[in-house]
Amino acid sequence: QVQLVESGGGLVQPGDSLKLSCAASGRTPFISAMAWFRQAPGRERELVAAILTHGAHSRYADSVKDRFTISTSNNRRSLHLQMNSLKPEDTAVYFCVARDRGKDGYNYWGQGTQVTVSS
To answer: What is the 3-state secondary structure (H, E, C) of the chain?
Structure first.
């Protein structure tokens, strides 16, 4: 099992920056990929950014490209999301997720952290 705990959410103004972090514990050596999802009220959960833990290949939703950066550190025990130029439409609960080797989908989810972008 892997446990994921997010931190760093909060209330910011449009144009501000915020960095989310996720601490992973447990069977972290077996993680093959990690990602951030988000869900806004009344909307479906969407993938924001994902990264492979070997090779560091990453991908982003079109809506956050060139504004957000995903990274890992500490041998897959930390996941980060640097968010710049935040917009009101970035308001959502952000979830840290992880996938075991051999799994098709993300099988570990954190509890989420709220990000609110408002003036």
So the answer is: CEEEEEECCEEECCCCCEEEEEEEEECHHHEEEEEEEEECCCCCCEEEEEEECCCCCEEECCCCCCCEEEEEECCCCEEEEEECCCCHHHCEEEEEEEEECCCCCCCEECCCEEEEECC
pLDDT above 70 for 55: no
Q: How far apart are CA 75 and CA 119, in angstroms?
A: 37
In whole angstroms, what is the distance from residue 16 CA to residue 85 CA?
Answer: 6
Distance CA 104, CA 5 (A): 22
Residue 41 has phi, psi (to 5 degrees) of -55, 130
Query: What does the pLDDT look like over 12-42, one tens digit per residue?
Result: 999 999 999 999 999 888 899 999 999 999 9
Could you read off the pLDDT of 94-111 as tens digits, one per residue?
999 999 988 889 999 999
42-54 pLDDT tens trace: 999 999 999 998 7
